[in-house]
Amino acid sequence: MSALDLEAPGRVGRLRDIARRAAADPASWGVSPRFDATARWYARLFAAGDHEAWLLTWLPGQSTDLHDHGGSAGAFVLVSGALTEETVHAGADGAALRSTSFTAGDARPFGSQHVHRIVNTSAEPAVSLHVYGPALTRMTRYRLQDGALRVLEIDRAGVAW
Ligand SMILES: [Fe+2]
């Protein structure tokens, strides 16, 4: 974890607990996960005063770009399958990606400055539940080029998702 991930451990831990509870209670979702080979499927499950929860599905090979969360902290929980998270770390030749694998039941809390990419590198579909606090308003997508993060695009709630 980076120092920024520790900015408010109580707050991030609370988001993780909310994600764990929601992931363990599919009857509360009000929607059944679907898989879409043309575009990753996602649905917002609920929004509360200071957070929101989304359900995401991942066919083998489906992924996000590197992205931040516009200043929101959050957590994701693997409902089923396996996902790989790639995060940015300083290396000898500049920034480089480091991979961590998560399987069903794992939870991954993250701070407000977290940048990551999520990919399903497995041969099976995966389902994950994500909580963000506060609710997402903006996400910047990046690519890693020559050891540095370059902005690809800024996506905004209500427009991009
Ligand atoms: Fe994310």
TrEMBL record:
Top-level taxon: Bacteria
Keywords: Dioxygenase, Iron, Isomerase, Metal-binding, Oxidoreductase
Any single Pfam family the record assigns to this protein: CDO_I
Single GO MF annotation: oxidoreductase activity, acting on single donors with incorporation of molecular oxygen, incorporation of two atoms of oxygen
Residues that hold Fe cation according to the record: H67, H69, H116
Family: Belongs to the cysteine dioxygenase family.
Protein name: Mannose-6-phosphate isomerase-like protein (Cupin superfamily)
